[in-house]
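Q: Structure tokens for this one, please.
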Amino acid sequence: MRADTTPVTRPVLAEPRGDDPGDPTGAPGTAALRSFPGRPRTGTPAARADEAVDGPVESAVPPRPEGRRAPGAESRAATSAPHPPAGRDPGKRPARTSPGRRPAGRSPGAQEGGDGPLLSLPASGRRIVQCLAVLGEDVPLQRLRSLTRRDEDPVGAVEAAVAAELLSWDPGEGRVEAVEATRESVIAAMSASETRAAHRWAARWTGGVTSLLHRAAAATGFDEDLARRLESEARRLGFLGRSKQAAELLRRAAAVSADAELAAHREAASVEFALRAHDLAPARRAAQAMRQDGAPAAHRALAGRLAVLEGRIGEGARLLGEACRELRLAGAARDELGAAALWSAKAQWLAGGPATEVRQQLAELDPPGSRDPYWAGERRRLDAVLTSSVHGPARGLAELAARPGAGFLTPADVRGRAAVTEAWLHLEAGDPDRCETAVRAALAAAAPVEDDHIATAAQTVRGHALWLRGSWTLAEASARGVAASSAPLWRSRARALLSLVAAARGERVPEAAADDEDPGPCVFGAGERLFTALVAAEAAGRPAVPALLTAPEHRPGLELLSGPLLPWRKVEVARAAVEAGHTALAAALIASLRADATGLPSWVGACALWLEARASARGGSRDVTARLYAGADEAAEDFEATAPWYYARYQADHAEFLAAVGDRRAAVDRFRAAWAVAVRIGAQPLRERCANGLRALRLPQPAGAFGLTARETEVARLVCTGLTNREAAARLFVTPASVAFHLGNIYGKLGVRTRYELRRWWAEQQTG
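A: Here is the predicted structure, written as tokens:
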């Protein structure tokens, strides 16, 4: 079966072009060509690509004068790049040999570390195995006749290769393919000429993009016509949102370009598409050269974008700011300056810059109206986020919906990124249901273009939404999936979510591994650390809350969590300020939270009333506190389903107030409601708090109030009277296995581990 998508390999890092990378008719950007460093175009196309990826390599091909062609052969690993062998790192290439020559002491069919089963095959059998290994697909048997002599039947050659476990053949369907386990060794044993011949055959068999890639891999010289076709196809794929594939095609186009200027232009466009796809591996290898003193402004802008994507926010903001100033003075093309300005604004905002100043600077350097749909979509997203930072998530969502660019004619990657931003704003607004809808839209947009970055971002937002909804096991699973991402920023967000889940459960917060990258001085990182610390303090009884709110390292996080962007996280900071006695801070946060509640789900307003009641209870005004709690009850219609952890804590706080004023029966009902939610979501510290409150009230507590079914209550009663599982089963006319099953559920719901603990708990409930 033929692959419908182009294979992904790592592009060569170069400078981004100055014009619109998504415009198929655009001419090379003059600013990019002026600043692109000249590189001697020596050797073969693959040799130049290898030098750019892995540095200078030894080769028997002598240097050629500039502007002239030097024939030669590509390395075996480079020519097989369109279909790399399974398990091989594309960046780790085998040792290079002279063109057209095999390593000393090796036969044409010899495999590494084996006795060379290819040696037993005829020449036609070896050609069939090598071509199918490079192709990586199954083909009809009759199509292999072109690889044999006229008087030779391919069936015999295929049967011999099948016997040598190099091919697999289904006689019923008549299709043949290379065995995946031996592809790597077969390709590694091929000479340069054999590899070129295999790629030429594969190019005739395949079609479209894959055929162009095989033609480029089999090229022994420069081919400007092929380069133009590769570039045209790359721009088409880039417009459709397939940035990784576009970057690879442009890298191949640069490798077969005869003109050094055009090659530089195509390499620059390749890097632009690679960064759009967040393909950071090739960028890291060339980052040191781009950060050298005296590098062109466009290179520093590229290095700044790379630094931001890797989590080095401060460094990226500095490099992008310098690049923007120089590009503006040099009169750079609009799209080139606009891209640098947009990333500079994004870096400054992530580093903690005031959103109002960032918006003003962005408007001066990059007025809206870019021709490229990608940059228009990025500008739309950033404007929505900055609006949220100033006026709250409701205004940000309105800004995102009002700006054009989300239609079906928009590229899929642009729609996916817009959906991720929408999901994040819905999450910060406290609406996990709409957040999940936007996440699904983002994943649907990312699927056809195979954009791992969009999928990773969507899963990160989904994990935080699951945490808010109390599905902590699913949130943990989502975070562990994101932790395998290649992007440092997303890995740090995944670790933060894992720490948050552990803190809410009352478990020890996992420490960062020694090899984990530090996300740098990012305000979101500081906000997540403070939020996790406050949640952990809640689980531990809040002994360190005053120190957390006044610690210098948590000041950036406090400023972020106090802003209008994060209303449901602001609840945690406001409650901490109330408990710590910071009256002024608590009053300011509660007032801001009530102002944010406009246009947000009703439970956010309920949280504002809850915190105001909590502050009033500490001040001793019982009547005012009772009215505020009553108002919170009326506003919290979907409180439990949307944010169960907050709902359970609200009920526990209300129960403590009712117990203090003497309404013990109402307090018991509140504690039981909080207990049931805490048991369901796995909040062990909150469950213990409710249990202690119920014990202090000294009232009888039916077992059903703790989540036990009628059958589980009867099993618990019989077991607590001293009966064994078999005796209890005989009383209930069930099997002992059923009794054991019910006991397991009882232990999980009540938080006990043995029959002794169960009997003690049962005695406490009966004696009050």
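A few notes: Residues 546 and 580 are 5 Å apart (CA to CA). The longest strand covers residues 167-170.
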